[in-house]
Specification:
Elements lengths: L10 E6 L2 E5 L2 H8 L2 H4 L4 H10 L2 H11 L4 H11 L3 E5 L11 E5 L6 H14 L4 E5 L13 E3 L7 H13 L3 E4 L7 E2 L5 E2 L6 H8 L3 E8 L4 H12 L11 H7 L4 E6 L5 H5 L5 H12 L9
Parallel strand pairs: 3-11, 4-7, 4-10, 5-6, 5-7
Antiparallel strand pairs: 1-2, 8-9, 10-11
Length: about 300
C-alpha cells in the first residue's frame, strides 16, 4: 500500500461510538509543520487545492462510514462503500492456517490492493494471524495498524523494526508483502507491471522455513497516473509526485471489479535447492506472477 496516505495524518475531532472518528485535515497538518512566521505567506487557496488533490472530503466520508472498525472488517467496509467487487481465484492454493507462508503480491494500485488483500486474508486467517509488511509511513493509517508491520524505520528505531520483522517471520503469523515496495509502472510496449522486487522476502522465507505463495492482483490505475510517472521520469524529476495522486485513484475505483489470483505455493525446499541467488529467485517469482494472468495493456 505504499503512498496511499503518505505523510498525511489524522485529526481526532469527532466522537463516535466512544472512539474518536479519524478525519483528514491537510491544512491543519501542514500548519503544525510550518513555522508560524512562514504560514502567512501561504495562500488559503493552496490548502484547498491540496485538499482537492488528495480527495480529502471523499476520504473522510470513507473514514466516517468504515471507522472505528479495524483490520479486515475496516477493509471490507471500505470495499462495500466503494461498491468494489473482489473475485478470488485459486482459493484452493491457500494454505491451511497452521502452515506458515509468505504471501508475495504485485502492487498495481497503491492502496486498494492492500485493502482487498487484508479483507481476504484477514477473513481466512484472522487479523491476529497476519502481518502485512509496509512502508512505516502507513502506520499512520490507524484502522489498519493492527495488521501492519513497518519495514523501513531509520535511526534509533531501525534496530527495533528489524527485530520486529525477524520476530514476525519466526512467529506463526502469515506474512504478506509487496516486494516491489512501489506501485506498478507503465513499461515499454504498453504493459503495466511491478518494478524490481527486493530479495529480502525470499531470504527471510528460506531462513524461517516458509513456503512462498505468489499472488497476482489484476487491476490498473487510470492512464493519467502512468503518464504522469512517465513524464516525471523523462523530465528528470526525482520526487515521486505521482504518489500524491493515489488517493484520487482510490476514489476513482468506485464500482470496479478486481481479481485476486492465488498461485500454487513454492516450497521452501524448492527454493533452497534451486542453486539460485536471492535476487535471482525474487526476479523469477516476480516473472511467475505475470504468468498467472496475461498483463493488460493501456
Amino acid at each position: 500500500m505504499a503512498g496511499l496516505y503518505g505523510s498525511y495524518a489524522y485529526d481526532n475531532t469527532i466522537i463516535m461510538d466512544k472512539r474518536p472518528l479519524l478525519q483528514l485535515d491537510i491544512e491543519g497538518i501542514l500548519k503544525k509543520r510550518i513555522p508560524l512566521r512562514k504560514q502567512k505567506f501561504i495562500p488559503g487557496f493552496l490548502y484547498n487545492a491540496l485538499a482537492r488533490l488528495i480527495h480529502q472530503d471523499e476520504l473522510n466520508e470513507i473514514l466516517r462510514i468504515s471507522y472505528p472498525s479495524q483490520g479486515s472488517e475496516f477493509s471490507r467496509k471500505v470495499l462495500k462503500h466503494l461498491n468494489i467487487e473482489v473475485k478470488l481465484e485459486g482459493a484452493e492454493n491457500l494454505p491451511t492456517p497452521d502452515h506458515r507462508v509468505v504471501f508475495a503480491s504485485n502492487h498495481p494500485l497503491g492502496g486498494l490492493d492492500g485493502i482487498a488483500l487484508i479483507a481476504v486474508l484477514g477473513q481466512r486467517y484472522g487479523d491476529e494471524n497476519i502481518s502485512f509488511l509496509v512502508n512505516d509511513l502507513l502506520m499512520n493509517v490507524e484502522p489498519l495498524s493492527n495488521v501492519f508491520l513497518p519495514i523501513n524505520k531509520y535511526g534509533s528505531q531501525a534496530r527495533a523494526a528489524a527485530e520486529a520483522i525477524n520476530s514476525a517471520y519466526a512467529s506463526d503469523r502469515q506474512i504478506v508483502i509487496f516486494p516491489a515496495g512501489l506501485v506498478s509502472r507503465l513499461h515499454p510496449g504498453g504493459e503495466v507491471y511491478d518494478l524490481k522486487w527486493q530479495k529480502a522476502f525470499v531470504q527471510k522465507a528460506i531462513e524461517n522455513d516458509r513456503d512462498i505463495v505468489p499472488i497476482r492482483f489484476v487491476a490498473l490505475n487510470r492512464k493519467r497516473f502512468y503518464r504522469l510517472a512517465k513524464w516525471r521520469k523523462k523530465l528528470g524529476i526525482k520526487v515521486n509526485i505521482e504518489q500524491a495522486t493515489l488517493p484520487a485513484e482510490l476514489c476513482a475505483s468506485r464500482g470496479k471489479r478486481f481479481r485476486i489470483i492465488i498461485g500454487k505455493p513454492i516450497s521452501v525446499s524448492e527454493l533452497k535447492n534451486s542453486g539460485k541467488s536471492f535476487p535471482l529467485l525474487a526476479e523469477k517469482i516476480h516473472d511467475l506472477i505475470y504468468t498467472l494472468h496475461i498483463p493488460e495493456k493501456i
